[in-house]
């Protein structure tokens, strides 16, 4: 996999086999590592070395040995390359270290990776059923999608700028600020529209926001302002749905129990997103398939609210 990744970028790739490690040399097509020339350049340096010697270099650069090893590398089927948004080596690395330190967990993880495709049944069955989810179900999907989008943004920020830890506090603060502003806006919106209508509007906005995020990632338009805006916007939409969901459930009763149920559903969705997306789906699928899964999940929720039968609920007085 490392060889195919380098070969997709550089014109010439060579592997120098070693006893404990292999050295990958990559460069332009005219890169010259003929043993005589390399030894000549090494001697021209005139630097004292303790372990690096003419004999050692001749051993590592022996043409017959290199040709044999190169044939062994290329003998098997070509491995797909490792990409920034398709981190296949991350999955291989996780499996490798699990095989050393936690073999039982490694076997379980391998099974989970093999069956991650079954997760697509959830949005597909939801779409086929055509039923409108309750506010708790929609908030669960929103919590899952919102935290998943946040993790994708963090991954993209590290890939693009290689300085995630310097900006992690600001990115987290923007998401939390979006939650607070969204909650305030949701309470205001619940005073002007029926609860079901307001929820439909926010479900539509969430679906469009995910589509915009996928488009920006697909086009590699990942400037800092764009990632900051996506972070705050995802928090805003998740926060906006909470008070309206409370209004839907509390239309005929007190606010306390509905708020607790919805909060639990939202937290459960976020917890599963952190567990599944960060630890399983990004290594197994890559970023774009995860985006498509989130879009399918929110599309199923939106379809139920847009076309399913919904009673005209009015917000309780405390939310006006």
The largest sheet has its strands arranged as: 1-2
Total strand count, please? 2
Which stretches are low in confidence, meaning pLDDT under 50 for 5 or more residues running? Answer: 252-256, 310-320
| General shape | elongated
Rg from alpha-carbon coordinates: 27 Å
Largest sheet: 2 strands, antiparallel
CATH 4th-level superfamily of the largest domain: MFS general substrate transporter like domains
CATH-derived architecture of the largest domain = Up-down Bundle
Order of helices and strands: HEEHHHHHHHHHHHH
Helical run tally: 13
| SS content category | mainly alpha
Helix content, binned percent: over 70%
As an assembly, this protein is single chain
Average predicted local confidence, pLDDT: 85
The CATH topology of the largest domain, please? Growth Hormone, Chain: A
Termini separation comes to 58 Å
The share of residues in extended strands comes to under 5%
């Amino acid at each position: 996999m490392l060889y195919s990744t380098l070969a997709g970028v550089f014109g010439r790739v060579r592997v120098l086999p070693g006893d404990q490690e292999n050295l990958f040399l990559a460069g332009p097509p005219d890169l010259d590592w003929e043993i005589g020339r390399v030894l000549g350049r090494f001697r021209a340096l005139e630097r004292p070395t303790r372990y690096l010697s003419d004999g050692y270099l001749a051993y590592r650069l022996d043409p017959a040995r290199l040709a044999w090893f190169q044939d062994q590398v290329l003998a098997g089927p070509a491995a797909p390359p490792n990409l920034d948004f398709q981190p296949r080596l991350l999955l291989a690395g996780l499996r490798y270290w699990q095989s050393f330190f936690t073999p039982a967990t490694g076997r379980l993880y391998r099974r989970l990776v093999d069956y991650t495709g079954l997760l697509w049944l959830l949005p597909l069955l939801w779409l086929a059923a055509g039923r409108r989810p309750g506010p708790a179900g929609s908030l669960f999907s929103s919590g899952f999608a919102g935290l998943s989008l946040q993790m994708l943004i963090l991954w993209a920020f590290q890939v693009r700028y290689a300085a995630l830890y310097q900006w992690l506090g600001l990115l987290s603060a923007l998401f939390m600020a979006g939650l607070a502003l969204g909650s305030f806006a949701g309470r205001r919106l619940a005073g002007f529209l029926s609860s079901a209508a307001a929820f439909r509007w926010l479900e539509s906005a969430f679906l469009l926001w995910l589509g915009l995020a996928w488009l920006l990632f697909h086009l590699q338009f990942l400037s800092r302002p764009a990632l900051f805006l996506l972070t705050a916007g995802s928090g805003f939409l998740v926060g906006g749905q909470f008070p309206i969901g409370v209004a839907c459930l509390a239309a005929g009763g007190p606010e306390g129990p509905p708020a607790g149920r919805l909060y639990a559903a939202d937290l459960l969705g976020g917890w599963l997103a952190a567990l599944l997306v960060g630890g399983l789906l990004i290594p197994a699928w890559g970023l774009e398939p995860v985006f498509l899964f989130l879009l399918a999940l929110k599309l199923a929720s939106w379809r139920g609210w847009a076309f399913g039968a919904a009673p005209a609920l009015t917000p309780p007085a405390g939310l006006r």
